[in-house]
């Protein structure tokens, strides 16, 4: 057989016989690597490790620690779950079963069966029994007609619907044991590496996300190559339950929901409103230093505004129905995006190159109709406030503006202790330029500005070709929280599209009309989602400068309530947010109750403290800090706050 050249990530090249598999390549490098490999990519395409490579190619080999390795492992585990469900619940029909960030799910139509959480142990047991059979997971190409017959004969109506939309010649199945599934792959080589299984939850899911279609049962699960990994994950899962922002938000009296108001429309309680206001003021102060100007736009807009911007085509199905006015044919929409309104502000006045960059900022509330099954606390809502800003600049100003936005994002992450994050530069596909608008020159300028800005900041950002928006490249920040979960919290996008759609212009130094470039940026993303992430990241123990209440005074008996009020009044006068717990309860219960509220400082006062004009200080998580004068405590707290929000 002819030899082919295989190029490895370090640039080295080795020759192998045509038809070699990634697994065989791994075996030639190291027996341990061959045992650990789970997935591969060939010429940047996902590839089964048992699938032949027949031409010169670049190759990457993935283990468990690689996201691609976990994805293949969990994708195969979804098939294993389906095989177990097929055995245990005859007559079930299958929808889709993808890998997700943590584990996998499978959507099933249970038919006459009823599946509850009580069935989880036997599903797990059956999955492990099947995994221990070490069945190979075999890929096969299949014609469209044969696929329709195979799944049609089994009564798999959902699979047949998917097959009917596929192009003949590009359809594959995967089989392990007695189970065959329609799937593009890739998968691990056999079920053998799956050593630990946990079915985690059930949920309802409409077929293909359409509320008018059948509601299926979504079975969630997670698997690992070692039992110890599952045990560690379950500990994290319990910690995540304790940190659930919905639970903490209720305990800390931050927000609430009301069916009378409507699903997915949060009500911010006084303490939550104060928290949001401090976050807004924090960002407003930073933005003022960077030359942003605040604007305010309406909560609704004429439908034609969003047709012009393209948002109606993109978000029309996810928007609330148009609002009709008494005027014939006149329609308004609840605002799904702030960008079109800001473009109209730019157009409201003649603009010169001397006005650029023009930085417009708004905490603007927008509305999108999320399906009821997708709503989740503050992370998926129907009305949310974005910390939106749009920068209108000349092409040669993009890099400088990017650097400034990055400075803002880094400052926020540091102040809020989001210290573990990754960055991704999303670039256009150089082999498929027709997907994008704008000239090659402008794209090169925009992409190079982002790359140069990252290099100048020393930010290691991975490049992903083909991930750019159609209107321009972008830089996304994914933050890891205290439990290792990833959240996208910051984004900077370059947009040539909206200035073109709205015919935005400025007069250049050459006295000619020019089109500005638009930079979108939102360090928080949305106030709702950001507060949810921050709650779970900190377990409700906010940084001192942000805490809804910084201190609570606890008199040990009613005799000292007057002194407690004096202490609270003095601290509040010094802008230290302080309340009193003067309930007729024992001091031990007051301490325990206020620990649950995550108030950073508890100030205990009794006879000794009243006589000496002092307070006995307890710090959340650290315990007793001793007695001190009120003024001394106030000075220490002010110093602590100042260090937190002004650190560089």
Automatic annotation (TrEMBL):
Its main location: cytoplasm. The keyword Metal-binding applies. Its cofactor is Zn(2+). It is found in: Cytoplasm. InterPro entries: aa-tRNA-synt_IIb, aa-tRNA-synth_II, aa-tRNA-synth_II/BPL/LPL, Anticodon-bd, Anticodon-bd_dom_sf, Beta-grasp_dom_sf, TGS, TGS-like. The keyword Aminoacyl-tRNA synthetase applies. It is an enzyme of class 6 (ligase). It holds the Pfam family tRNA_SAD. Its EC number is 6.1.1.3. Residues 244-543 form the Aminoacyl-transfer RNA synthetases class-II family profile domain. SMART domains: tRNA_SAD. It catalyses: tRNA(Thr) + L-threonine + ATP = L-threonyl-tRNA(Thr) + AMP + diphosphate + H(+). Keywords: Aminoacyl-tRNA synthetase, ATP-binding, Cytoplasm, Ligase, Metal-binding, Nucleotide-binding, Protein biosynthesis, RNA-binding, tRNA-binding, Zinc. Residues 1-63 form the TGS domain. GO terms for biological process: threonyl-tRNA aminoacylation. Binds 1 zinc ion per subunit. PROSITE patterns: AA_TRNA_LIGASE_II, TGS. GO terms for cellular component: cytoplasm. Homodimer. NCBIfam families: thrS. Belongs to the class-II aminoacyl-tRNA synthetase family. PANTHER family: THREONINE--TRNA LIGASE, CHLOROPLASTIC_MITOCHONDRIAL 2, THREONINE-TRNA LIGASE. This is Threonine--tRNA ligase. It comes from Duncaniella muris. The gene is thrS.
